[in-house]
Amino acid sequence: MATEAAAPTARERERGAMRRAVALSARGLGSTSPNPVVGCVVLDAAGRIVGEGWHRRAGGPHAEVHALAEAGEAARGGTAVVTLEPCDHTGRTGPCSRALIDAGVTRVVYAVADPTPAARGGADTLAAAGIDVEGGLLAEEAAEVNAPWLTSVRLGRPYVRWKYAATLDGRTAAADGTSRWITSGEARADVHRLRAEADAVLVGSGTARADDPHLAVRGVPGAVQPLRVVADTEARAVHPGARVLDGAAPTLVAVADDLPDAATAHLDGHAEVLRLPRAGGHGGGHGRGLDVTALLTALHGRGVRSVLLEGGATLAGAFVAARAVDRVTAYLAPALLGAGPAALADAGIATIADALRLTVTAIERTGPDLRIDAVPAASASAASAASAPAPAVHEPKES
Ligand SMILES: NC(=O)c1ccc[n+]([C@@H]2O[C@H](COP(=O)([O-])OP(=O)(O)OC[C@H]3O[C@@H](n4cnc5c(N)ncnc54)[C@H](OP(=O)(O)O)[C@@H]3O)[C@@H](O)[C@H]2O)c1
């Protein structure tokens, strides 16, 4: 005999709405920088979804504004469920705290407290207006999607995801140098999605020379093209005619700041040239190429909040040595080579006690290959710290 399912409680509806809001927020990845990604769902007084929205691009309306517009009068007496504490400042758009008060919602549930001095305080403003405010619902899920932005706020540099493709024994090419294609078409299509989510895609001069990579996004409808960046200290790897210099996306070639102007003349009109100190100075790298910290600081200064580091092994080693890798995404093909270059070159780690330990966050199949995502073990706790709700409001614990 069929039994009637119990109606969801208000709490279950809010959790469901937050799950939806987190999914909506992810749609903004790659197009909102320097802003965070945010999703919002508005429930009416009876707990039904009446509005949805997400922040689509910097300068455009915030998620709350989209969701409230869709909800209209149905928002009155309802609940706004939002992945980030509503902002309290007037930037290119007005404060969301004001929009929520004007819309007449009586409750606001958010996941992650806003860590920025300029925008924080929305929860207090809402509470002062008599709105019931709660922070911390599904905070970890929301913080994971917003990790690039939260990391860049915390560290003052872009979030770096290092991606590589290797055989099961960790080789990225065969002994004779052949490497196309180690992984499947499905894995390569997935990489285009990662590029679309990133503000910049970076390779070293070795990869630029060996592969003549294009680095733009293909096959992802509506994608915003990332900035293509080549770390080419001596300005010798990127030549006119290189695929990275076509018009598909903007390109920046990072070179040493002591090169004469003539050394970069061939790039004039084809790419922007960024002059940086060589490694071996105050930070980043371990004695070759460009200063990793200076490169990341310069990119951050241009609004880049997330970088997809696509290799090769030498540059990735420098990033690991500089503790500037926040996520590793490995595509492992079920194949063995036994010889050939390893995925990661010297990272300044000489003994097992110093190994960079990672926590695996996801394992999935991409066609015949495996995709493994992992984050430095220490940063798992940092991410939950970043997602801690603001102290001023009522914060029940989620089980
Ligand atoms: N399977 C994969 O996932 C994958 C991905 C990418 C590449 N690859 C393969 O990897 C090979 C290239 O890798 P690679 O290791 O030779 O080259 P790479 O890592 O792409 O580039 C290394 C070069 O980058 C420059 N660089 C600038 N700043 C640096 C810094 N701080 N630290 C270190 N290097 C810095 C250095 O040359 P200058 O100082 O002279 O500029 C260095 O020699 C290619 O065969 C490519 O096919 C495989």
TrEMBL record:
Enzyme Commission code(s) on record: 3.5.4.26, 1.1.1.193
InterPro entries: APOBEC/CMP_deaminase_Zn-bd, CMP_dCMP_dom, Cytidine_deaminase-like, DHFR-like_dom_sf, Eubact_RibD, RibD_C, RibDG_C, Riboflavin_Biosynth_HTPR
UniProt remark on cofactor binding: Binds 1 zinc ion.
Keyword Ligase applies: no
Domain of life from the UniProt record: Bacteria
Record-annotated active site: E64 (proton donor)
Obligatory cofactor(s): Zn(2+)
Record-level Gene Ontology MF annotations: 5-amino-6-(5-phosphoribosylamino)uracil reductase activity; diaminohydroxyphosphoribosylaminopyrimidine deaminase activity; NADP binding; zinc ion binding
Function: Converts 2,5-diamino-6-(ribosylamino)-4(3h)-pyrimidinone 5'-phosphate into 5-amino-6-(ribosylamino)-2,4(1h,3h)-pyrimidinedione 5'-phosphate.
Name the UniProt record assigns to this protein: Riboflavin biosynthesis protein RibD
Organism phylogeny: Bacteria, Bacillati, Actinomycetota, Actinomycetes, Kitasatosporales
